[in-house]
Amino acid sequence: MKEVMVRPERCMGCRSCEIACAVEHSESKSLFAAVGESPSPRKRIYIEYIPEHAASVPVTCRHCEDAPCTTVCPTGALSREEISRKVVHSPELCIGCWTCSMVCNYGVIGRQKEARVAVKCDLCPGREVPACVEACPTNALVYAEVKDFSGIKRAEAALKLARGMKPGSAL
Amino acid sequence: MKTTEKRTLHPTICPYCSLGCGFFLELEEGKAVGIRYMPEHPVNEGSLCPKGNAAPDILNHPDRLKYPLLKTENGWKQLEWEEALSLAAEKLGTARKENGPNSLAFLGSAKCSNEENYLFQKIARLLGTSNVDNCARLCHASTLIGLGKTLGAGAMTNPLADLSNSDCVFVIGSNFAENHPAVARQVLRAKDKGAFVIVADPRLTPTSWLADLTLRLKPGTDVALLNGMMHVIVNEGLLDRNFVREKTEGFPGLEQALQRCCPETASRITGIPPSEIIKAARAYARAGAASIVYSMGITQHISGTDNVTACADLALLCGQVGRKGAGVLPLRGQNNVQGACDMGALAEFFPGYGKVGDAEAAGRLKTLWKTDKLPEKPGLTATEIAEAAGKGKLKALYVMGEDLVNSHADSSRVREALESLDFLVVQDIFMTDTAEYADLVLPAAAWAEKEGSFTSTERRVQWTDRALSPPGEAKPDIEILLLLAEKLGLGLPYRTAGDVLAEISGAVPSYGGMTKERLKKGFGLIWPCPDSSHPGTPVLHVGRFKTPDGKARLIPVEYQSPAEIPDPDYPFLLTTGRVVLHYNAGSMSRRSKALLEKEPGLFVEIHPSDAKAMEIGEGNRLVLETRRGKTEATARLTGKIGPGVLFMPFHFPGTNVLTGDALDREAKIPEFKVSACRIRRE
Amino acid sequence: MMKEMKEEMQEGMKEEMQEGMKKEMQEGMKEEMQEGMKEEMQEGMKEEMQEGMKEEMIRGDTKGDTSGENCNKKKVLAIDAEKCIGCRACSSACPEGLIGLSEEGGRRNLKFPESCSLDCERCALTCPEEAITFVSEEGRSPAFSGSRTLALGLMACRKCSASFATERELERVRQAVSLKVPLRPGGDFWMELCPACRQESFREKEAGAILRERKIKGNL
Amino acid sequence: MPEAVYADLSRCIGCRACELACERENKSSRISVKVLSGLAAAPVSCRQCEIPLCTAPCPKGALSCENGKLEYEAENCTGCGLCTLACPFGTAVLRAGIIERCNLCPGMETPACVATCPAGALIYTEPGSLGENIRQRRAKRMNRALEPPAPAGRRAE
Questions:
Q1: What is the mean pLDDT of residues B468-488?
Q2: Structural domain boundaries, residue A114
Q3: CATH of D48-101, one of 3.40.50.300, 3.40.1010.20, 3.30.300.30, 3.30.70.20
Q4: So what CATH class is D1-45+104-145?
């Protein structure tokens, strides 16, 4: 399956992805209208700022195989779609016990205040490329299959080597 | 249970371990009815471990001793205080007159306040003997000696909260998650900031859960591991050369000794793969600030002093001392074990660590005590006291708040020793197994029933006020000691604990600036605090060490195998330790219903493969036998320990029947952690 | 399943009833127990056996209190065996503890007295299913007849095999819960577990999530 | 703002202080911790669900939920115990005809179990903020992985 892969060294912390995500998950799907909407649109991707290193890292659902959130969900609101392999959340089944939020090792299960249910990344159904990826100006987010992503990383590493740069640094 | 108008809150300090956690005792009509937390306390930030939560159980317990008791042929006879103390004074006096002062011995208590321990050793020394010691001998005597000779002070170098500033925390021989749970919050905080945590322990414990790297070494092989790590550090040039050159002495000797200790050698002895030893060495040495946390897994060996020395060497080699987040942190046992040592309740030290035998130290004390005679030779240590009693060399023993039957190694011999005494006084809050042997039992007050100061493992001296009255006719230890001193004709001029503290600040230089008023303000003072304007010293060894020339010593140590190793007769290696729900000899924690319900009896951990070979199932009763005795325990099958190793907690009578009495040659600490043992199903 | 259960239940009750009757006969008649009544009861019993049980009426001496005014107030309990889910509410509500509870052989047995001279009616008021009603002795229809015990089938926990609730209780809970949240397959795994095992199953799942992150080596 | 006692599971050291504290405050413990095969421990207590299933079968409305706050009125409770069967977590317990479950220690600023937790594993918080710490930790770990391996010798202070 294609996933939102992260290249943290490229993230400059502009939070475009967060805004794009919230707008995409709003009623109106427009930035200006979304602001006033109720229930207020919620983002599902998070930019974590690390003050000690003045660095930002995007954190979003990894759609884990054998995801802990799906194992603990008592009502089956969180489940894995057999075909797409996405970890999806059905709000009508959610009882808001937040056990999923406790066990998520990435901390990316949020809460929709008004509806009092969990919200998480759904990889933007109906879109070819998720909104966050499309909005990222530095390509720190890539929508790709793992094997293709490795290919991208390899090419990048080769380029860095050729230019005599350190492997971890940004291009 | 809500705080109502009838209820009052009384700030106090936990009586269990050495962390010095604060909380409020909730009182109603003079009875302790509950606990409120104290989030502003700098050590525990309000948190309490299960034992702390159960602390009030001690105060209201029906088993509390309420009257002085005399052993007669028809059982215990209740005495008046007057009668009891006259008897004690008379018996001690007779023994002293007939057999000399060294036929007396005094065992102080790391559970009693600084003032009480100071008085206790003063009485002993005024009677002319240095046979005074406390249970630090059984847990951290090796720390006193080992850190004393390397860093110049046998105490924790940095405060606990400073652990959160470390980039690397190296835990060796400590299961703080169970034994000092509030330390876990600081280590976790360091982890949150990105620290690398290494845990070296033969067992997998909840402390190992916090580790980024776990080193499962064989019990008793710590020196080999530490030497292996130092070898890597020196070889790879990871040492702090400037620090070593400017602040230490003895590097060439250490460097030479380390040549023989390559990781492969260390791996053969410890059972840890060389790659992991190298990884640990690099992580520790490269960290901006690294701390070593150790505990009884390091100290309770015949090589205890060597283990401690090696820890100090490692820290010095990498310059990881005397800075924020960099230090050596021995986590001590009892709530006032640091204080009892500071007060000189030790056979070889006067108050403030002046050596017994050192004329200058004795001279100062003579002036202060207005006496012309003080013992000139170090006395018998706690372990030697029991031995000497067994050989009939001791006539009378005074035990204050210590259950040596259950806490000393090889308890069958301790029992015999106690029986052979002419006169035994035990002053305690419960009828312990030791008190059962006493001729005279004196009922004492528990921690919240008296006032005084306590010194925690991080050298924080805190004052507690009396919150409630002791049950029956029980008295604070300090009152008992003062009355006894009067009967003995020593005439000590104090009325309150505050008076004693005033003298302590004259006798112990690092307590120089401590007064009751200052200690009560905020959360105490951290020694050294030499004068009344000094704010206390949270981090030791900043700039210079507490040695005469200000330089630390690098002292090479060599691995030596434990005193007793498994053989065909006794094929298992038995190690002992603590569990989270109980405390030491258990005289307090085993009387808490809530704690006992959750951990009701003695068990032994055995590896499933050993259990299978011997057809032992979970919950089977096993008979364990060493060269010293045998005991029964329930089997618990677990991979927490390795094959060939057994683990038992020492909170229940029975464990120390098995443990060995081989002593560390310098610190005289018994090797509790390694015994050869055999087992069979009952 | 349900049918089987009912049959079994009836079996059990019959036995109970007959035994109870025998005992009473041996003991001799109680004062208020008239010949006619006895006949009536036996007849009622017979009828019931033929028809299958609809309502049971239980009658017996209430702690032997036969004298004075209590006697006059004596009311007869009518239990709707179809409605009762065996939840025990009545049992804990009764101030005199007259409703007996026992569990054995995969059944929860509720033992009701035939009649009651207390004037609280707490058992009826508390019953979540309104399965208990009171009728005065005079108004008692001949069709009412007594068995003392209702035996309801228990569910065994899928994990620890301990019986933890009656089948009817769980059915009732399932219905109620479905109104809040549609229960899908897999979304009701906990229904088959006793409360203690439910805690345990969540503990295991939660611990499982952190174990992957834990860097402990060892063969545990 | 609905709040409950949650756990930062990676911090729990299985010491059971929370059980002791709860037992002292509430006579019986409403939170339970167990060490699983010596490798992990997890506390389980009432999750104060936003849609509490325990209220569903309650016949007399003794258990009710208003704006995410669960209320229990003992005087309306029939003691039927159906709520204990409707709770997926098994954390509502019927004892002597009364339902016992975590009531977040009314009258205390922080529930006793949270206040006492030595490792800071129990958190009393609004559920939306649960992921914050975990995300930070994750981000730091990813960031650290980016650092090139340090060269031999002391890292600059």
A1: 96
A2: 64-120
A3: 3.30.70.20
A4: alpha beta
pLDDT at B20 over 60: yes
Shortest CA distance from A106: residue in chain D: D135
* Residues B103 and B96: beta-carbon distance below 8 Å: yes
Judged by CB atoms closer than 8 Å, whether chains meet at D34 and C92 is answered as no
Domain containing residue B86: CATH number: 3.40.50.740
Give the model confidence (pLDDT) of B359-373 as tens digits.
Answer: 999 999 999 999 999
Distances (CA, A) of B453 to A18, B141, B478, B501: 56, 22, 12, 8
Collapsed DSSP state (helix, strand, coil) of residue A49: strand
Same domain, B478 and B414: yes
Cβ-Cβ contacts under 8 Å for B514 (sequence gap 6 or more): B453, B461, B501, B504, B505, B525, B527, B529
CATH for A48: 3.30.70.20
Same domain, B113 and B151: no
Subunits touching D (CB < 8 Å, at least 3 pairs)?
A, B, C
Q: Is there a contact between B220 and B561 (Cβ–Cβ < 8 Å)?
A: yes
Chain A positions in Cβ-Cβ contact with residue C213 (cut-off 8 Å):
105
Class of domain C2-152: alpha beta
Which residues in chain D have their CB less than 8 angstroms from residue C214's CB?
10, 39-40
Compare D150 and B255 and report the one with higher pLDDT.
B255
Residue B451: its pLDDT value, please? 96
Report the candidate in B493, B514, B492 with the shortest Cα–Cα distance to residue B505: B514
pLDDT, position C120 = 80
User: Cis before residue A39, ω within 30 degrees of 0?
Assistant: yes
Write down the ipTM of this complex.
0.89
- Taking the C-alpha atoms of residue B15 and residue B584, their distance in angstroms, rounded to an integer, is 12
- Would you state the pLDDT for residue B8? 93
With an 8 Å Cβ cutoff, is C83 touching chain D? no
Give the chains touching B; criterion: ≥3 Cβ pairs < 8 Å. Answer: C, D
Do A77 and A49 sit in the same domain of this protein? no
Residue-number span of the structural domain to which B221 is assigned: 141-330
Is D9 in contact with C89 (Cβ distance < 8 A)?
A: no
Q: Which candidate, B519, B401, B532, places its Cα nearest to that of B465? A: B519
Query: Which SS3 state, helix, strand or coil, does residue C168 take?
Result: helix
C-facing residues of D in 24-63 (CB < 8 A) are 32, 34, 36-42, 44, 51, 53, 56-57, 59-60
CA atoms within 13 A on the CB side of D131: 28
Decide if A171 is inside a domain.
Answer: no
> Domain check: are A97 and A56 in the same one?
no
Chain C, nearest residue to D50 by Cα: C180
**Residue ranges covered by each domain of chain C:** 2-152, 155-211
Of B291-300, B500-509, C71-80, minimum mean pLDDT range: C71-80
Inter-chain CB proximity C93 and D78 less than 8 Å: yes
Q: For position C73, what pLDDT does the model report?
A: 57
Distance CA B302, CA B662 (A): 7
Using the Cβ of A101 and the Cβ atoms of chain C, whether some distance falls under 8 Å is answered with no
Of C214, C215, C219, the CB nearest to B639: C219
Shared domain for B153 and B192, answered yes or no, is yes
Could you tell me if A74 and A39 lie in one domain?
no
For residues A55 and A9, state if they share a domain.
Answer: yes
* A72–C186 C-beta distance less than 8 A: no
Q: Considering CB atoms only, which of D52, D131, D146 is closest to A101?
A: D131
Q: Is C211 exposed, middle or buried (0-12, 13-18, 19+ CB in 10 A)?
A: middle
Does residue B639 sit at the C interface (CB-CB below 8 Å)? yes
What pLDDT, on the 0 to 100 scale, is given for residue D117?
97
Chains that touch A (3 or more CB pairs under 8 A): C, D
